[in-house]
Structures are given as structure tokens and as C-alpha cells.
Design goal:
89 residues; alpha+beta; two-stranded antiparallel sheet; 2 helices
Amino acid sequence: TGGVLLRFNRRTQSVEPELAVSWKVDLGGRRISFRLRPGIRFSDGTPMSAQDVAYTFERLLDPALRSPIGDSFRSPSGRVQSAVAAPDR
């Protein structure tokens, strides 16, 4: 319930993998692709997939939810710039 894709290490000032084992930034910083660590499970033992991560992002970026996480993806016009896809598990 508390896992994150990446973690910022304050001591080393670097981004470290957690649920994602790797990531790639494309299109001048406008797209981030994550590769998930294999075998990830929810706290109840249910397997977690890329579709679960995509669903979570879609919910967090929904303006109706008013999530502060969406603010990081908001354009100067106030719109959230998002397109979430899970091309495979």
C-alpha cells in the first residue's frame, strides 16, 4: 500500500528504483516509461500489473479528484497533461 515507483534519496541526492527497476525519459521530458520489478504483489498477495499502475495514475491525475500529485503534471493553462498507457503486464 505504500510502495512508490521511484524514491528520492536525500543523502545521495539521486533517484533510486523501488517498484520500477528502470525508467526512460523521452520527448524532451514529456514522456516517462517505467519497467516494473517482476513479482510485485499488493499487501493481500494479489499480483500487481502495469495496468494497476496506469489506473492509479489516471485517478491521481483526474482534476475532479484534486490530488496534489496532479499539480506536478499541470500545464501553465491549468490542464493536466497526461496520457497513461500500460503496453504490457
